Amino acid sequence: MIDFTNLPTRKKSYGGANGNKLCVIINDQLYMLKLPSHAPKNINLSYANSCVSEYLGCHIFNMLGMKAQETILGNYVYNDVNRISVACKDFENNGYKLMDFASVKNQIIDSKSNGYGTDIKDIVETIEKQKIMDPIELSNHFWNMFVIDALIGNWDRHNGNWGFLYNQDTDDAYLAPIFDCGSCLFPQIDEEMIKKVLTDKKQLNARIYDFPTSAILLNGKRINYYSFIKSHEYVECDKAIERIKPLVNIDAICSLIEDIECVSDNHKTFLKLIINERYKALFF
Prior knowledge:
The longest helix is centred in the C-terminal third of the chain and has 19 residues, at 265-283. Strand 2 (21-26) and strand 3 form a beta hairpin. The chain has 284 residues and is an alpha+beta fold. The model has no long low-confidence stretch (mean pLDDT 94). The chain is built from ten helices and ten strands. The strands form three sheets. It has a five-stranded mixed beta sheet. Helix 5 packs across helix 10 (265-283) and helix 9 (250-258) runs antiparallel to helix 10 (265-283).
């Protein structure tokens, strides 16, 4: 945990709906400092735990072989209130700018929906038809990302928060690091609900088998991760499960969670239980 409060800042600004963001400098590198957002689904929380989720989600992606944004947890004091915040390394450099998948999807003239349409069949069709990179490589990337999002319970992986880094001078593009993981691992859960989940199997099972659902749609409805994966309807999803499964080290993930200073012991127990149970349910 480091103190972000008095870091030097830059004029660069960042979009997105979740929480306030500043551009700060850490070790001569630009970082997007994300402050915790409000918790509209839980009035008992002053702020959501989205910064902790962002930190954990990106680290877990890296642990499972997918390059993700570098994240650092720390404190930011504003108006005498300390807020747990996360610094996310800015990966736009050397002339490369983010080009999200929604923008790529807009290039597919006969697509059935616009760039932000998240129907799974439309996404798969776009991956097959796009000319940015090899379709097989992009398909593997998408499905690997999908099953890891399933593991960590990310309910907000849409077409605007993954994609490529593009250089307009060279017309070169490559996959951007995974980013925007603040909606994973139940960021709006409070201590009271954590106690209920830890003592009530029904409450736990609901968070393993029923929700959160994916932002991606199947037949007009948000995908239930468990039902979708167990249906074996998409062979590429099955292949991704087999690729990611041997890389999952539950002990290492639990150690990562245990080392977070700003999380209560009950919250750590909850996070470790969720990861372990979702892993067993989805990957076996």
